[in-house]
UniProtKB/TrEMBL annotation:
Keyword terms, alphabetized: ATP-binding, Nucleotide-binding
Gene3D superfamilies per the UniProt record, alphabetical: P-loop containing nucleotide triphosphate hydrolases, Tetratricopeptide repeat domain, Winged helix-like DNA-binding domain superfamily/Winged helix DNA-binding domain
Record bears the keyword Electron transport: no
Classification via Pfam families: AAA_16, GerE
Cytoplasm listed as a keyword: no
The protein's name: AAA family ATPase
Chain ranges of the HTH luxR-type domain: 870-935
Natural source organism: Streptomyces macrolidinus
CDD domains reported in the protein's UniProt record: LuxR_C_like
Length: 937
């Protein structure tokens, strides 16, 4: 029997509503699966009830009885209400099993008849609750779900606590949620813990990240919001999902979006949360706090300078009301208790009062950027003086590496710039759009560009705006194909403007058409046009593009083009551009096995990009540094960098397919294979959706590699055959570009296709010899040895593998060296019986190559994996699943398996669940029986 009493909540909450709580849910699930209880706690609006619903729905299906209760603040004074919710519907099932005094006391409490009280019935009532839960548990596990625990009546809480402390060994668990924002903060938390079993796991639901808030807003229908707006929503809400959704709703209902520099509209529902405390402030204290809310970094000194003479007393009054928090280590700094307090305070003020505050701060602030911003917000209408000050402040922000701030200031400057002024409003808006692109705020940049295009007549303004639209599309250039003819028409015969358009046409040729030769020609034309126009920046970018294209093509002119791109004079804006000559040189170095010099080059580029705040370049260079560390066999470091790049890409929406591709390769080398597969599939999907054939081949190569590491040789062949076809059609001939040829050959050997593997090796070897790609040749030697082994030429194969391992070690390709050592140990084991994997283990451990270490561990236990020799019953399992199953057959516990395979106990449990499902079995014992049956057969 299952009893569910739902209070204004769906029985089946969709899992996609639980955003950003994966780790929290995983820990709670593990606790529940182990028979423990869970207490979910956190401030109002953080999603505690959503987490509770997801857990109770999921785990509730595994128990016999689910008892639910909830309450509101207005019901908290009603005694035994929560008890009635919990036990009211199960009394008939257990009443006959309770002693008469207990049954009478409990029925009186539940029905309200007889005026039962804890003082009067005391022990009988407490024992009745305990006996009822024990009686229910005798028929099967019981789960008690209590939401809004802070409003449960004290009598019910006391009874639950009495029972919880005495249910040890009984299959009764509790899953509770409690709000902990009230003062003192720990009070509700401790009260709830005292009413739950001693082994209860407290799980805190904290704020969401900006990316998670963006996902939540999108899920709830607030789509198309500029990333700058999402950033403001995240900052104002403090990451609170309820507050963020309310701010999103207010924006959707607002007839006009806030102007640059203005705060978000704060809806009445959120103002009401703090209005009571704000109304308790004196008028002087409220005005002081308003000045603080308008300042970027408010301090007591700033308030004094702005004319608030009694700032200390006013802030002390606000602190007593819980509106601001005082810091012992920094007594002069003012921090609001929550960003919403500051936003609500500012929203409550009238327009004239705000302008007065900004006027005071325009002279009080010490930072020139802040002074200019306040000066603008204290003014109305167009004013050349205000516009000029804002433009100067934007230049300062740009130099400081704060392009997002510069974009906002330029937009403010455009609003204050009179028509006919020089520079005019369109010029300022275009600067803002270009700053927004630099900051990674592509949505904002695109919106500004379209605004310019709607009214601009000057060809230079229009072409620049078209370039912003194209740049904002990123790798989804096919979506803006119609822009190119319009941009060419606007450019006319102006070589400077034509440089911009042909540079973008070069990128289009690669990304949309997959035609490297045409891309090279467009890049060369752009460089020629730029030289005619005296546009050194445009010439440098075009030459760098041409150099990169020639490098990937294996074109003989590549070194000369790189040298031209690196000639003086250089442009500092191009120096750290991800498409500049420095990036082209890095690509040449890493493809040519000059890893030390490549690391120095990409590290310097990354530092400069971060200094300037160029987000797209930072994301790109993080990937480059991760790739370098991966080549060198520093898998742990590569994984950290790749994950950082992916976080940045997802936060900005820039280069997500590329960052997912590199992160997949890093996960396959030093993380989790399942994660590598997921990321590679994501990258393939994104590239296909964008129509980006360039990155589609990279993503498919990553997917093929992840499948190889996972033990799916057939899947590897499918993916990498597609890569081979794509690169042939693209005109990519340099095997150092994707380095997938060795993987494809190895997988072909595993699936019994050594002849095709030989064809792949021969074709790649010819190109690698022509270009001098030493590490590629060494990897091909490793693959050649596997082909020879498949033909029965084991002695030759062992000699070739030994040579390949030594060669890769000299070149500094640590992971490939370790793979060669692993293959060598396998061949020796196949030839002479049990072999030592110590060398492979040492090298993989040095690289922190965890997935490969797990494979070595399995080979040590079960012997080498040979094509076609895996037990048929286990053929359907992935590599990690086979490793876990092999250790189960040895009798290892989950914790022992986790330690030996360098994974978590949680991952072991999840892997076994998949094994059971795939094999159609129910337990660890069945794995042993299945394997034993196969051996005896």
């Amino acid at each position: 029997m299952t009893v569910r009493r739902d209070f204004k909540e769906p029985v089946k909450p969709r899992s996609d509503l639980v955003i950003g709580r994966e780790e929290l849910l995983a820990g709670a699930r593990e606790q529940l699966a182990g028979g423990g209880s869970v207490l979910v706690h956190g401030p109002a609006g953080t999603g505690k009830s959503t987490v509770l619903r997801a857990l109770s729905t999921e785990y509730g299906e595994t128990v016999r009885t689910v008892l639910r209760c909830s309450a509101t603040e207005s019901e908290s004074h009603l005694p035994f209400l929560a008890l009635a919710d919990l036990l009211g519907q199960v009394m008939d099932e257990v009443a006959d099993r309770l002693p008469a005094p207990q049954r009478t006391a409990l029925e009186s409490a539940l029905t309200g008849r007889g005026e039962s009280t804890l003082q009067r019935d005391g022990l009988a009532l407490r024992l009745a609750v305990l006996s009822t839960l024990r009686a229910l548990a005798a028929s099967g596990p019981v789960l008690i779900v209590a939401d809004d625990f802070q409003w449960l009546d004290p009598a019910s809480v006391e009874l639950l606590g009495f029972a919880a402390r005495r249910l040890g060994g009984t299959p009764v668990q509790m899953l509770c949620a409690v709000r902990t924002h009230t003062e003192p903060q720990a009070q509700n938390h401790e009260r709830c813990l005292s009413a739950t079993p001693p082994d209860t796991l407290p799980v805190k639901v904290g704020p969401l990240s900006r990316a998670q808030i963006a996902q939540l807003l999108h899920h709830r229908g607030h789509t198309g919001l500029p990333r700058s707006t999402v950033r403001d929503i995240h900052r104002t809400s403090g990451g609170n999902p309820l507050f963020a959704l309310e701010l999103g709703r207010a924006l959707a209902e607002s007839p006009t979006p806030p102007s640059p520099g203005e705060p978000l509209p704060v809806p009445t529902s959120l103002r009401a949360l703090v209005r009571g405390r704000l109304e308790a402030l004196s008028e002087d204290a409220r005005r002081t706090l308003l000045v603080a809310s308008a300042g970027a970094r408010p301090t007591v000194t700033l308030l004094h300078t702005a004319g608030r003479e009694n700032a200390e007393a006013d802030i002390a009054q606000a602190a007593a009301l819980g509106l601001v928090v005082t810091e012992r280590d920094a007594p002069g700094i003012i921090r609001f208790a929550h960003p919403l307090v500051s936003a609500a305070l500012y929203a409550e003020a009238g327009a004239q009062e705000r302008r007065t505050v900004h006027a005071a701060l325009s002279t009080a602030a010490s930072d020139p950027i802040e002074r200019a911003r306040h000066f603008a917000l204290s003014s109305t209408g167009t004013d050349p003086r205000v516009a000029a000050r804002l433009a100067e402040a934007a230049a300062v922000a740009r130099d400081r590496g704060a392009p997002s701030v510069a974009a906002g200031l330029e937009l403010l400057a455009a609003r204050h710039t009179p028509v006919g002024a020089e520079p005019g409003p369109h010029e300022r808006r275009l600067r803002a759009a270009e700053d927004a692109l630099t900051a990674g705020e592509t949505d904002l940049a695109r919106d500004i560009a379209h605004e310019v295009l709607a009214s601009a007549a000057e060809p230079s303004d229009r072409v620049r705006a078209w370039m912003v639209v194209i740049d904002a599309a990123g790798h989804a250039m096919a979506e803006v194909d119609a822009v190119f003819p319009q941009a060419l028409a606007d450019a006319g015969d102006d070589p400077r403007l034509l440089t911009l358009v042909h540079y973008q046409l070069a990128w289009r040729a690669v990304i949309v058409e997959g035609d490297f030769e045409r891309a090279r020609q467009e890049g060369a034309l752009a460089a020629h046009l730029a030289a005619r126009a005296g546009d050194r920046r445009g010439e440098l970018l075009a030459l760098a593009f041409q150099a990169q294209t020639e490098t990937l093509m294996g074109h003989p002119d590549a070194p000369a083009t790189i040298a031209r791109a690196l000639k003086e004079p250089q442009d500092p804006r191009v120096a750290c551009d991800h498409n500049g000559a420095g990036a082209a040189r890095f690509r040449w170095l890493i493809m040519g096995d000059q890893l030390t010099e490549a690391r120095k080059t990409i590290s310097a580029l990354l530092r400069e990009a971060r200094r300037r705040g160029v987000v797209e370049a930072e994301t790109h260079f993080l990937r480059g540094l991760a790739e370098t560390e991966l080549r060198a066999g520093h898998c742990g470091r590569a994984l950290e960098l790749a994950r950082e790049s992916l976080r940045l890409a997802r936060d900005t929406g820039i280069g997500e397919a590329a960052s997912a591709t590199l992160a997949s390769l890093a996960e396959a080398a030093g993380g989790e294979v399942d994660r590598a597969l997921t990321l590679a599939r994501e990258a393939v999907t994104r590239a296909e959706e964008d129509g980006d054939v360039l990155y589609l081949s990279r993503a498919l190569a990553a997917l093929g590699h992840a499948r190889l590491v996972a033990g799916d040789a057939a899947g590897t062949v499918r993916s990498l055959r597609r890569v081979r076809e794509l690169e042939e059609s693209l005109g990519v001939t340099d095997p150092a570009r994707g380095r997938w040829h060795g993987d494809l050959a190895e997988a072909l050997v595993r699936v019994g296709e050594p002849a095709e593997a030989q064809e792949v090796i021969d074709a790649a070897r010819t190109r690698a010899l022509r270009l001098g790609r030493e590490s590629v040749l060494a990897v091909l030697d490793r693959a050649q040895a596997l082909v020879r082994s498949a033909r029965g030429e084991t002695a030759l194969a062992i000699r070739q593998l030994t040579h390949a391992q030594e060669r890769l070690g000299r070149l500094g390709h640590g992971l490939e060296e370790a793979r060669a050592a692993y293959a060598l140990a396998d061949l020796r084991a196949q030839r002479s019986g049990p072999s030592s994997y110590d060398e492979a283990t040492r090298l993989f451990r040095r690289c922190r190559a965890m997935p490969w270490l797990r494979q070595v561990e399995t080979a040590t236990v079960t012997g080498p994996v040979q094509p076609g020799l895996a037990p048929a019953a286990l053929d359907v399992l992935a590599a990690t699943e086979r490793q876990v199953s092999a250790l189960v057959m040895e009798g290892a516990t989950n914790r022992e398996i986790a330690a030996r395979l360098f994974i978590s106990v949680k991952t072991v449990e999840a892997t076994l669940t998949r094994v059971y499902r795939k094999l159609g079995i129910r337990s660890r014992v069945d794995i042993v029986r299945l394997a034993a049956g196969h051996r005896s057969g």
